[in-house]
Amino acid sequence: MGVPGLTAFVEECGSFFAELRVRDTKLVIDGSSLYYHLFFTSAADFRRGGDYGPFHHILMVFKHTQGW
Description:
Blueprint: H1 6-12, H2 31-41, H3 52-65
């Protein structure tokens, strides 16, 4: 479902982006926005059934850079 307007708001206010390492805490991630961002920045061709190779690659890169 996502938070309406969240992506545009965060992109406009670039000062939100900072590396932060957290431990022993809970973190809430807007999964819909994350999926949207990763899919459309992967350069995957989603027409005619989709080209999911680039999308899979960007998911694996994200997964490994996050230490999952």
